[in-house]
# Entry
Amino acid sequence: MIGVSCFLTPVLIMERPPGFSRHYVLLLLAAAALAGCVSSTPPSTSDSDADASQSSGRYSIVQDRAPSRPLNPDEIQEVVPVPETRTLAGNYSPYVVNGSTYTVMDSEEGYEETGLASWYGEKFHGHRTSNGEIYDMYQISAAHRSLPIPSYVRVTNLDNRRSVLVRVNDRGPFHSERVIDLSYAAAWKLGFADQGTARVHLEAVVTGGPAPKEQENRATLADAASHFLQVGAFSQRSSAERVRQRVQDMTGTPAFIRPVVSGTTRLYRVRLGPIPGDRELDRISSTLQDTDLGRPHLVEESR
# Structure
């Protein structure tokens, strides 16, 4: 769109010469006014610029949304609870998000809660959950702030009494007014996929007693599709140690120092991890970027 900005140009009004008509003087004034108008074209966004801004960050779309293709009810698999062995993946506790600290329950036994449920869809489809699994919005799953991962929960929509059993394998939602984040398929089964939220009642389903947490070393966790973030590199180990302790306390994620020789200089790199799942990775990255430590970056790490 072309815009026009105008400003008034001072015009010296002289005595009209003999023979000059009044209409001719008015015409001169109009021409002088138009001379002070400058046409301008605002900068446009090229297709490449739009693509770059749209794909910036971890996700290919900015705003979450429903699937771009219709959901096929026949493809949705019902969740069948089975005894599962839990690992540290997705169960590190406590952890911090946006300045709030959350603690993972030792057991889901006896858990019940009523509140708002929301759903997440295409933005996160195909990305890793907190325990390293791939999120599939066409299947039934859920995210919870404090239930052990994995665990099973019966979710009942209090507005229509529909109920569905979900498997929790992710963390969230980090909104105080919501109690659970459901996959799009789960929200569809409960009849509120066309809405943002629904009033629900949650009740944990325990199979064969609480599953024990398996004690694992970091090498095993690193093999489970985890990520590592480098926070910084320091020439003094004491400086690296201070930052290591700070970021570990801040994020609730194990931090360590990786010494490396660069030319004649010995550096001490501060790294976080393993970090299972893209959502957990984004959470930690956002937490660190809110400090004066700069922007962390992904690194390959063999532990």
Q: What stands out?
A: The first helix runs from residue 22 to 35. The radius of gyration is 29 Å.
